[in-house]
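@channel sequence for tomorrow's demo:
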Amino acid sequence: MFDEMIDFYRKKDKDTWEKIRKALKDAGVRHVRAGHYFGDAVSPNGIGGQLDPRNFGPAGRIDRDIYYIRIRKADEEAARNAIRSHGLTAQVVDYRDSNEQND
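structure tokens (generated this afternoon):
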């Protein structure tokens, strides 16, 4: 319950995120926390802006979410083996570092 959790996957890639979640579930890795959050550094309309003109292109809404998976540190080896058996790799991209370098 109070085990240390680590970032196992964090990237702007929904398809791989779904595949990794399925692989972890199939392998029986428990205590997996997964979710997503808005990852765009600046909204074009400022705080509270509801309309983003970039969403009205020919492909529709752009997915700007960052998808993450957190697991217990004790389960890291089992989780890595589970996703390797499915031909996947987990990657943690720290977007805060890349944004600070651009400033």
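heads up for whoever presents: The first strand starts at residue 5 and ends at 11.
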